[in-house]
Amino acid sequence: MSERMTNTANSYIGGAKQSIGSAIGSSDLAARGAAQKAQADAAQRFADDKTRKEGVGHKVEGQIQQTVGSITGDKSMEARGHANETLGDIQRN
């Protein structure tokens, strides 16, 4: 299971525990659910930040590859540069 799916599942499960705990008057269950949801949400924010940083790296790498490929006439390197720049744009958004 991917990190994003795990975080999303844990966030929903934690939220459900929190709601059920509140509904049945179990403050312990509600608190455990709130903690699980908060931990999953924080983990997802961290994972999203990591992906955005990787995207910046890919974008810069792609721009360098395009420039070097253009200067040296290496069309293959230019194409890899375009691909890396596009990957970086996707990761940053």
Q: How would you summarize the topology of this molecule?
A:
Layout: H1 3-24, H2 27-72, H3 75-92
Helix pairs in contact: 1-2, 2-3
Biased composition (Basic and acidic residues): 46-61
Organism: Podila minutissima
Biased composition (Low complexity): 30-45
Task: Describe the protein's architecture and organization.
The protein has 93 residues and is an all-alpha fold. Helices cover 92% and strands 0% of the residues. The chain has 3 helices and no strands. The protein has helices at residues 3-24, 27-72, 75-92. The longest helix is centred in the middle third of the chain and has 46 residues, at 27-72. It is rod-shaped and about 70 Å long. The two termini are 22 Å apart. The mean pLDDT is 93. Residues 29-93 are annotated as: Disordered. Residues 30-45 have a biased composition (Low complexity). This is CsbD-like domain-containing protein. Residues 46-61 have a biased composition (Basic and acidic residues).
Summarize the structure.
The protein is mainly alpha-helical. It is 92% helix and 0% strand.
What is the rounded distance between the termini?
22 Å
Radius of gyration, in angstroms, nearest whole number: 21 Å
Low-confidence runs: none
Summarize the biggest pleated sheet. Answer: none
Structural class: mainly alpha
Biased composition (Basic and acidic residues): 46-61
Biased composition (Low complexity): 30-45
Organism: Podila minutissima
InterPro entries: YjbJ_sf (IPR036629)
